[in-house]
Amino acid sequence: MAKEIVHEDFGEKIGGAKKDLWAARGLYVDDLLGMNEREAEKYVKKDNVWKKPDYNALIQSGVPVDILYFRKVVRDSLNASPRYLRSDDTPEKRLARQKEYIATVRQVQEAVEKVQTVQDAMDVFDALIIDGGYCERISHGIGGGYIRATQKGRDNPVITDKLVNALYFRGERDFERRIVQGAVKKQFGVPAEQKIPRGYEIRFNDGKRAYSKNNDWLPDTYYVTKGYAILKTNFATREEALKWVQDLARQRGASGKQRFVPQQLSRVRRTGPDYRGNRDVIGQDYLDAFAFRGGEFGNWMTQNDRRASLNMGFDALKDLAAVLKISEKDISYQGTLSIAFGARGSGNAAAHYEPLRKVINLTKMHGAGSLAHEWWHGLDDYLGVKMGAKGFLSEQSRLYEPFKKLIETMKYKPETPEQAAARTEAQAERIRKNAAGWLDSAVLAPLKRAANDEMHMEAYAVLREEFLSGVPGSVEQLSAFKKSVTGRVIPKSERDRLEVFERMLSGMQEQEPPQIGRVETDFYKNSVRMGKECEKDGGYWESNTEMTARAFACYIKDKLSPEISDYLAGHADSAAAFVTGKDGKIEILKAFPEGEERKAINAVFDEVFADLKRQHFLTHSDHPQTLEEIRPAAPAPSRMDSMPVITDAEQLSLFGGEKPSLLGQLAAAKGQGKTPAEPKQTKAHEPEL
To answer: In sequence order, what are the residues at sequence separation of 6 or more whose Cβ sits closer than 8 angstroms to the Cβ of residue 4?
Structure first.
């Protein structure tokens, strides 16, 4: 069998990967030495310092429920991240605050985890808070006094009123009320399958109280309530009532949101220039060709997976540089970017870009097809630093005019003449309705009180129609008419408002073409709806950061056409989901640009990259190098060569089994079994399946 080179991590160590972190033991002060400023801001959190205990396992081991609940109450009272002061205005001061936060959280953790009895729990306050110098007891009068925070306590990023109140008990009865009874009320330690859903209660009807008017409520049964509402009665056992309310809560409480995971590509197609000359690339080629800072592989990736990922990634990045006509060194943003294959996330997760370490991670399963999307995130972050943004430039697009235009083009488009006419008519109708309301309030109501006869009502109707038609002077006529009937004119404040409406209504009579405004694009509207239909919400789908990345992947796919580069942009059109329309029918929701909107967005991307080259953030290049130019082929190594090799070629495990796309599933559901013809390939490079 042919021998193959062993592919290992290359270049500068990226750091921060899961295999290098403190995830299992929790964060200590010394761990900050290996973090940069942005990582420390992200990772110095309570859950990373004091790992969330497995309370059920501790209960099974024999730890009393009330003691564990005390620990939980104290842990929950800690603020999730350091409490910074206004004076913490430099990285050095914030780092000192983060160190103090970690040290104090560890101190609290050590104190409460030693607690074994109720007395131990009540002693923690004095031992930790008073003796630690965070608070002091102030006495006044006979037997009077209070507790006051010291300067040390006020300056500490952990010590808060909430923590102090969680630790302080007035005696055993206070502990019983807050901890023992609190654990029962919160169902702490109760197995999930036995818990009553939050907000519901199961009660017992002993027959002594009759709530039913129909006398159909049986004694010695259980019933379910929510708030003051009785939901269902006459359960023979508590178990029956519990099962019923759990099923009810599951139905009512489900968000209805689906989990979005891009369809795994069944194969990776590529047509276009043969940059590699049928040779395998190695990590050093990434350093030489693209100037990546470093690269790494997940420990579980086989050598064949590593080889395939390197080869496909190399071709894809070459395609990206070629289609954008930029220097290949720009692919790594001038040496600031790293790349990882399956090393920094689970295999079921989508590819992602890490701004803290400036690294693109391509998972084995879904990395194929997402490289363009993640590369844009990196460029967005890189330009954000260059332009002085606090994060991604797309989220502060006002700092760079081409990005501002890109965001506006993604979200808005010009109205059609029909839309403008409909909008104008709707606005006019709203103005007429408001004007009629104000007029009736000012004239009609007093008119009815003074003389509610048919003749006056007919006269008012004629004057009212003239007013709503914008006839000049109609307000004066209405005021004179009101005085003739009621003896009073329209008050000045109301007359002024009606004259404003008169001028507006008069201007509406001019037959000028309506001004063309703008409306939301389908891309934007669908992205907003995607956030309501899928698990990721909080503005994820309609954020500038994600919308620009999805649009960029489509842009690259279109620029490549008719060539294909699936590893680069195979997922460009994959942000779609089945949803139920207003008519109850299943439809497909596409959170990526299409049609004329896509063409308009692509044109702005052209402007963005042209300007980035003019501004020298990127360098124009028309000539991508081949692997032979980067690394001339060396003579075959001798059998005595000491380079590490593997001798057993493994079956490529990146892909397997045909998986139809969402569009394919929709076509199949509609009975349209025909599949589009494969595009003609000039020279294909596909991994063997």
So the answer is: 280, 303, 307, 645, 646, 649
| Together in a domain, 236 and 102 | no
Does residue 406 lie within any of the structural domains? no
Query: Count of CB atoms within 10 A of residue 204's CB?
Result: 13
Structure tokens at 335: 């040496």
Contact (Cβ atoms closer than 8 angstroms) between residue 101 and residue 109:
no
pTM over cut 0.70: no
Q: Are residues 127 and 75 in the same domain?
A: yes
Structure tokens at 429: 């109708």
Give backbone dihedrals phi and psi of 646, rounded to 5 degrees, phi first: -115, 145
- Domain-embedded: residue 152: yes
* pLDDT value, residue 535: 62
d(CA 550, CA 554): 7
Same domain, 180 and 204: no
pLDDT at 115: 93
Q: Are 14 and 296 in contact (CB under 8 A)?
A: yes
Assess if residue 155 is contained within a domain.
yes
Task: Identify the segments of the chain with pLDDT beneath 70.
Answer: 1-4, 15-23, 141-144, 209-215, 251-259, 261-262, 344-350, 365-366, 419-420, 509-517, 535-538, 583-584, 633-689
Which amino acid would we find at residue 514?
A: P
588 assigned to some structural domain: yes
Can you give the pLDDT at residue 210? Answer: 58
Same domain for 181 and 201, yes or no, is no
pLDDT at position 684? 37
Total count of domains within the chain: 4
pLDDT of residue 664: 52
- Report how far apart, in Å, the C-alpha atoms of 167 and of each of 58, 123, 131 are: 21, 9, 14
Q: Are strands 338-341 and 359-362 parallel, antiparallel or unpaired?
A: parallel
Co-location of 561 and 615 in the same domain:
yes
Strands 338-341 and 352-354: unpaired
Q: Are residues 587 and 577 in contact, defined by beta-carbon separation less than 8 angstroms?
A: no
Q: Are residues 526 and 664 in the same domain?
A: yes
DSSP line for 48-110: HHSPPP-HHHHHHTT--HHHHHHHHHHHHHS-SS----TT--SHHHHHHHHHHHHHHHHHHHH
Of 419, 646, 631, the closest CA to residue 513 belongs to 419
Which H/E stretch holds residue 359? strand 359-362
Q: Are 423 and 565 within one domain?
A: no
> Which residue, of 473, 507, 541, is where some domain finishes?
507
Type of residue found at 479:
S
Cα angle 191, 194, 198 (rounded to 5 degrees) comes to 100
Which residue range is the domain that position 100 belongs to? 35-185
Question: Cis bond leading into 562, ω under 30°?
Answer: yes
